[in-house]
Specification:
Elements: H1 2-5, H2 9-12, H3 22-31, H4 35-65, E1 67-69, E2 78-80, H5 82-86, E3 93-95, E4 99-101, H6 104-118, H7 125-132, H8 147-164, H9 167-173, H10 179-190, H11 194-205, H12 211-229, E5 253-256, E6 259-262, H13 263-267, H14 287-304, H15 310-317, H16 323-334, H17 338-351, H18 353-361, E7 369-373, E8 379-384, H19 391-405
Antiparallel strand pairs: 1-4, 2-3, 5-6, 7-8
């Protein structure tokens, strides 16, 4: 090595000791190829480049076809969790830009794939429902809608049930000819309106308690194909085969093998052409709203059977602000047993001034509550840790969803 470094330049630069540069190696390789082969290589590269550009152009066209302008009330909002899934963003948190690439077919496929990872492998009902029904639908073929139109359709479903319900048979079979309880049951049910059901559906569909945000995203989704879409939406975080805007399972809608459950128990008092199907996977379109109303009716019925709930129900049915009633039916949808706790707490707040003062002014009170007094003077409980369950979060979410729709 020392000898070479100290050697004359003609020895160092001799072909034996000098390495070729990359450019020289390339020229040497290219020089061995004939002119005809060079033409073929150039032609193949041009074809490959053309195909790549064509595919990119096709994909860009597809993306442009599904590009939707973002409403002003959603622009630059930061969202996460289920909002991301519904809007076709799959990272945990993102900011909504001035447009969204919104393809319902791709979104619902992704949601069901996520659902299948959540439910037990032996539970085939969800997969069968997806393969037989959902996968065959084209959710890009839709008619634009909005939440006001959806409210009208819910109102129509409620009206169909109320006008065709056999109150006499119900009075005889379920309440044993007790006229006072039947009157109370009918009055309480008649106070459940389209805003109540839509608010409690929003509680099931969306993760946060921002009522305005939930309403605005629901409206955007409905305007871009989701009226049909939400009827096939899976509950991605549920271990059961649960779908649709109210996230029903077979625990709520079931009438087979001589067994009736919850909504299906009340359904027996309707004509067959008005009522809902026997299975939750058979529900279509307005059946979902009917099932939600029937389920709410059943939960009110379970409260009426207990004499301690009669006075609270009489008060809550006369409340001009229906946020409290909406909370009640949403809580009992989540966990029926917590409905009684909510009802009793709400009643004490609205009838016992000392109890209200103790709860709102005594900082040493063991359980913290938040309250709101509406313009009619009633006290609305919208957050509580009364029960060690998720119900207190349902109370708060439903409260703000109902206010956003008012």
């Amino acid at each position: 090595m020392v000898e070479i470094l100290n050697a004359p330049n003609d020895i160092i630069n001799s072909p034996k000791n000098r390495k070729n540069s990359p450019q020289e190696d390339s020229d040497k390789w290219w020089g061995k190829i004939s002119g005809f082969k060079k033409l073929w290589i150039a032609f193949a590269l041009i074809i490959a480049l053309w195909l790549w550009c064509k595919e990119k152009s096709k994909n860009w066209t597809v993306v442009q076809n599904f590009k939707k302008p973002t409403p002003e009330n959603l622009k630059w909002r930061k969202v996460n969790d289920l909002y991301s899934y519904y809007l076709w963003y799959w990272w945990e948190r993102f900011q909504i830009w001035d447009s969204l690439n919104f393809n319902p077919n791709e979104i619902i496929q992704s949601l069901y794939e996520k659902k299948f990872k959540k439910i037990p492998s032996w539970f085939e009902a969800a997969k069968k429902f997806y393969e037989d029904t959902v996968s065959k639908k084209d959710f890009n073929d839709f008619e634009a809608c909005n939440y006001k139109i959806l409210e009208d359709k819910i109102e129509e479903s409620i009206s169909d049930i109320n006008s065709n319900f056999d109150w006499d048979w119900f009075w005889e079979k379920m309440l044993w000819w007790d006229k006072d309880k039947t009157k109370l049951f009918k009055a309480a049910c008649n106070n459940i309106d389209e805003k109540c059901l839509l608010a409690y559906s929003m509680t099931e569909l969306f993760p946060s308690c921002e009522g305005e945000l939930n309403k605005n995203i629901l409206n955007f989704l409905l305007q871009n194909g989701w009226e049909d879409f939400i009827y096939y939406l899976p509950a991605v975080n549920d271990d059961y085969a649960s779908f649709w805007p109210y996230q029903f399972t077979s625990l709520a809608v079931y009438d087979a093998n001589w067994e009736k459950r919850w909504a299906s128990i009340i359904n027996q008092f309707l004509p067959q052409e008005i009522g809902i199907p026997w299975s939750v996977v058979k529900l279509v379109w307005s059946d979902h709203h009917k099932a939600a109303y029937l389920f709410a009716m059943y939960n009110i019925y379970t409260l009426i059977k207990n004499k301690n709930n009669i006075a609270p129900l009489n008060l809550i049915k006369n409340s001009k602000h229906k946020g409290d009633l909406t909370q009640l039916i949403a809580i009992m949808h989540n966990k029926p047993a917590n409905g009684k706790d909510f009802l009793q707490e709400w009643y004490k707040l609205n009838t016992d001034k000392k109890y209200l003062d103790k709860k709102t002014h005594n900082r040493k009170w063991e359980v913290t509550y938040n309250y709101d007094v509406d313009k009619n003077g009633s006290i609305d409980l919208y957050e509580s840790k009364l029960s060690p369950s998720t119900s207190h979060w349902y109370w708060k979410k439903t409260y703000y969803n109902r206010r956003a729709l008012s």
